[in-house]
Amino acid sequence: MIKYAINLRRQGKKLTSRITESVVFLRRFLGAPRQVGSVMPSSPYLTKAMMDKIDWKETRYIAELGAGTGVFTRSIVRKLREDGKVLVFEIDPALKTLIETENPGFTVYGDARNLQEVMRKQEIPFLDCIVSSLPFAVLPPRVTASILDAANRGLKPGGKLIAYQYSKHMKPYFEKRFESVKISFVLRNVPPAFVYECQKSQ
Ligand SMILES: C[S@@+](CC[C@H](N)C(=O)[O-])C[C@H]1O[C@@H](n2cnc3c(N)ncnc32)[C@H](O)[C@@H]1O
Description:
The chain has 202 residues and is of the alpha/beta class. 44% of the residues lie in helices and 21% in strands.
């Protein structure tokens, strides 16, 4: 009975924090729809689909672009090996503060266009993987191109960019820069999403 009550309380807490997170996210979306690009944080199904594409044993250096309220950040921090390092980018100051408050001692960087500069300052020679939630299709084309080029340059040969989008619009842009692009579909997300697994040439 006590176990049941504790479980119920835990689930209640989880639900409350997910609702709070969704409200914060929606507010940020209403303030800057093209920058935030989505009305809700990613679902646990999309999170799992993204995380399952990463070889966690082989991944030491990883970057997350567009962390939002930190749904992917939490999984990355949990799964990353002990000697690993993650560079998290979020341009919205309120969301950035939210993640930093949840993870004391953690630095969240701003604009993902500064990826290579941050890598240099943090003495990270290459990235094994990049996880992106950036709404590339609605960002200004110059910003999208500059982030995709920085991501490609920052990855090691054979490294992967895992990105989700709500359409197949970005396929040719990824194909232009990466050797192979695989697409899968996650229905259980609002809205349903396409997951792009883009691999840099060896
Ligand atoms: C669709 S939301 C995804 C949030 C979260 N990762 C998720 O899956 O729920 C995209 C996020 O990218 C951020 N963003 C947009 N442009 C950015 C940029 N140039 N650099 C860093 N973050 C950016 C937005 O502020 C927003 O929080």
